[in-house]
Every structure is written in structure tokens, then in C-alpha cells.
Amino acid sequence: MPLTDACHDDGGLRLAAADAGLLADSIRSAGLKVTAPRLAVLRALTDRPHSNADALFGAVHSDLPGTSLQAVYGVLASFGTAGLVRKIEPAGSPALFERRVGDNHHHIVCTRCSVVHDVDCAVGHAPCLTPADALGFDVRAAEVIYWGLCAQCQADTSAP
After folding, report:
1. What is the residue range of 70's domain?
2. Closest CA to 103 of 84, 121, 79
3. Which of 54, 73, 122, 148 has the maximal Cβ count within 10 Å?
4. Is-contact 96 50, C-beta < 8 A?
5. Is residue 24 part of a domain?
6. Residues 54, 116: one domain?
7. What is the pLDDT of residue 90?
8. Is the bond preceding 131 in cis, omega lying within 30 degrees of 0?
9. pLDDT at 151
10. Other C-beta atoms within 10 Å of 5: how many?
11. Burial, 102: exposed, middle or buried (Cβ in 10 Å; 0-12, 13-18, 19+)?
12. pLDDT for 2
């Protein structure tokens, strides 16, 4: 069971408290103050990787009705600056955010349903792709987005 699942027994409450503690620790270790909106956004992003700001706002608004969309954008900006989240911008999509940072992985996007998944680098070290001519740049990361039909959309198109 994921740590973020809600449970009705005492063990589940301890897991939820431990989860909140881990989230707070990661915020503190990034040099940021722990606030309710920051905790809520980080929890939502843990549960929903590759989410846009609107989806994250929807996820936190029920627990924190006083939170605004602008506050979520502010939290995401501070998290990005602190290295807690990564922002990806697939063509034709609003910016998406994820907690998986620092490993130079890539993404695969379904052209029909827009689901996004992580794809590890083929080479394994950043940058996992190198340009033919770096023009004097010290290349530290490469960003690749693969496009195609996910398994579910393929099954839907092949069904009669």
C-alpha cells in the first residue's frame, strides 16, 4: 500500500503522519519553510506525478479551501527553484510537474489520451545524449519526449 493511501486503522494514521513528516523533511532540506500549502502540493504531486497546476490546485483545494491557484503556482515555482520538482513542457500541453528530479530521465506521451510516463535514459548517465557539436556548451542534461499511443489507446483503436 502506498504511504499516501488513507487508512482507517491506527497503523494507517501512523503511516499518514510518517508520510507528512517525510514531506516536511524534504521541504526543509531544500531550504524552504514548511507551510500547509507546500505540504499539500507536495503530497498531491507525490500522488499525481506529471500533473499541471490546475490539477494540483483541484487536488489541494478540498483540504485547503483558502488556497488559490496563484498560491499553487507560487509553491511550484519555489519548489522548482529549490530543486524539489521538475517542470516538463510537452508540446500542446500545459506545463507538467513531477517530483522525480536529478536523474535526467525522459518522458513518453500518448498522442490520444495525453498520459505521461517516465522513461529512463538509454545510456544511464546525464547527459544521456550528446550533440554532434555542443558549440562550446558544457552540456549537463538532455530532454527527450517520445510520442505515441499508449497500450490502452492501442487496444481501444483495434477493438471493433
Report:
1. 10-88
2. 121
3. 73
4. yes
5. yes
6. no
7. 93
8. no
9. 94
10. 11
11. exposed
12. 32
CATH number of the domain that 51 lies in? 1.10.10.10
Q: How does 22-59 read in b/e, with b if 16+ C-beta sit within 10 Å?
A: ebeebbeeeebeeeebbbbbbbbbbebbbbbbebbbeb
What Å distances lie between residue 59 and 40, 55, 68, 72, 139, CA to CA?
A: 8, 6, 12, 11, 36
Tell me which amino acid residue 71 is. Answer: A
CA distance 63 to 118: 28
Mean pLDDT by groups of 10 residues along the chain of 160 residues: 36 61 94 96 95 97 94 98 96 94 90 94 74 90 90 84
Cell 538532455 locates to 142
State residue 16's pLDDT score.
Answer: 64
